[in-house]
Amino acid sequence: MSTTNLAVIPGDGIGPEVTAEALKVLEVAANIASGSASAGPVKFEQTRYDLGAERYLATGEVLPESVLAEIKEQDAILLGAVGGKPNDPNLPPGILERGLLLKLRFELDHYVNLRPSRLFPGATSPLSPAVLDKGEIDFVVVREGTEGLYTGNGGAMRVGTPHEVATETSVNTAYGVERVVRDAFARSQARPRKKLTLVHKTNVLVNAGSLWWRITQQVAEEFPDVTVDYLHIDAVMIFLATDPARFDVIVTDNIFGDIITDLAAAITGGIGLAASGNINSSREFPSMFEPVHGSAPDIAGQQKADPTAAILSGSLLLEHLGRPEAAAAIDAAVLADLSERGPEPRTTSEVGDAIAARVVG
Ligand code: NAD
Ligand code: IPM
Ligand code: MN
Hints:
The protein is α/β, with parallel strands linked by helices. It has two domains: 1-111 and 278-361, 3-Layer(aba) Sandwich (Isopropylmalate Dehydrogenase); 125-268, Isopropylmalate Dehydrogenase (3-Layer(aba) Sandwich). It has twelve helices and twelve strands. The chain has helices at 15-30, 53-59, 65-72, 95-107, 129-132, 174-189, 206-220, 233-242, 254-267, 308-320, 324-339, 348-358, and strands spanning 2-11, 42-48, 76-81, 112-118, 138-144, 154-157, 165-168, 195-200, 227-232, 249-252, 275-279, 287-291. The chain has a ten-stranded mixed beta sheet with strand order 2-1-3-12-11-4-5-10-8-9, sandwiched between helices. It binds nicotinamide-adenine-dinucleotide, 3-isopropylmalic acid (IPM) and manganese (II) ion. Residues 97, 101-102, 258, 292, 294 line the site of 3-isopropylmalic acid.
């Protein structure tokens, strides 16, 4: 039995509801003996952190330094979602997103934001049969997680006047681009099709575009068996709607990856199924696993949220911890549940129970 110290940040809105189900399924999967890192069951030693809108509104705290220091010492993090009620005058946009979620991604150096997109048998895609017949949808987006437009570089001048100027500067470093591109090549190489698509907008964003392009060409020399392709971000939107089977691994910057992965979720059964891992591939800091969706204030507290994305994020967590068989058991349980989903609505916890019951070693 090996012990994994797990930080749990349920967060806001539907975050606590879906996190409870992810933990339920993780506990069952943890009992499956597997993995090369250390065989035998895993014991999760959970520490819960009540961070998010409620804490901020009550105390003004978003992520105290002492809490961040504690989280840095954990083995992994499971996060639900952050974001308060829309238009709350006491909670300006960005306070929690920047101060909590992005702060964790940046401080823990989560440079690989891994977002798999697979149309599971049993899940329903809004795409037409003609598009779906072109091939299986099974790709991975490797989204850069620590740079780009997300760094908070920019400012506002003459705010509120007709002469207001607002800027956000995209920061791209050779170091940051190279490490995420190399990670994406390695992931492509490990997959059967060995294909990598770099996505950018090199025809307009010529500085950052040139850097991403050159580094991709350079790193490609180390991976001669990987086929490299390039698409502009706008064209990717076309192909996600008309021929998503063409994608295998996509590597891209922070904002393009954010946008691609919501559309990718929509075509593979919806945002309720899309999982992600914020990975520190060098393993200096704990990685963080979370659904791609947000706090969904419109359905929060009603047991209407689909917990599958959170549950599949638990599978990515186990995979990262060197437990591929336990991860596969979760994927198989989700697949079985999806193929038997009928038209009748189920509560969040009913879905969690049904998936947990199907996890077998
Ligand atoms: P959202 O993902 O929360 O919701 C978009 C739509 O999808 C809503 O109609 C919602 O009901 C639905 N939805 C989302 N998850 C679902 C689930 N599991 N099951 C069923 N339906 C689901 O995006 P939004 O409305 O743009 O953002 C709401 C808040 O969440 C904002 O404060 C935003 O900043 C934050 N946010 C946080 C994260 C995160 O924590 N990683 C991600 C995205 C948005
Ligand atoms: C996501 C979210 C976040 C992002 C926001 C809430 C900061 O949309 O995880 O996709 O833009 O990365
Ligand atoms: Mn997003």
